Amino acid sequence: MSGSASIDDLLTFEEERPRREEQGGRGRLGGLLRLLLGVAAVVVVVIVGLRAVGLQVSLLILITGVLALFVVRRIVAALAPGPLPPPPRRPVTRADDGTWNWTAQDALRRAIDGWATPLEWSNTRPERFTGVILPRLVELADERLRLRHGVTRESDPARARTLLGERLWLFLETSPRRTPSPRDLAAIVAELENI
């Protein structure tokens, strides 16, 4: 071995498979011998077990059955697919035309989709807005109140109502009969941000 080795040389290894192929007939003979020894061992154990419970089975049938099981096991192992490769990770990058590549699902995109999809559904089903979107807005309002002012709507309703303002308080407390328009939602979100 020479005194200098590259990092690739140090980090690579030879697999066992090429060595077995170099051995040629000895590898196949050894595999066959191991198979026969395994079959013999299983047959002896099965015979002892059957004799212990008082049963007798033809030795030829027993050997044939165990050998068939070993062969099927080897065939299944040879045909088994390897592990799946990890999915490629594509970073979110800025394209030449100034747009962003959103093919990679990052946390911001998932958060946006977490709001966009239910909002789209609520256009055709108003009950979806009161069941999905409104509870999220209520949680956001409570969290903003808690973080900025140390209160929640439940802990100090009078102060929370003052901080939220009458319009936002009524919106969060009463379920709207129809889905608010995008303009109304933008105003509500702006009021939430000003808490």
UniProtKB/TrEMBL annotation:
Keywords: Membrane, Transmembrane, Transmembrane helix. It comes from the Bacteria. The keyword Transmembrane helix applies. The keyword Membrane applies. The chain crosses the membrane at residues 32-53, 59-80. This is DUF4129 domain-containing protein.
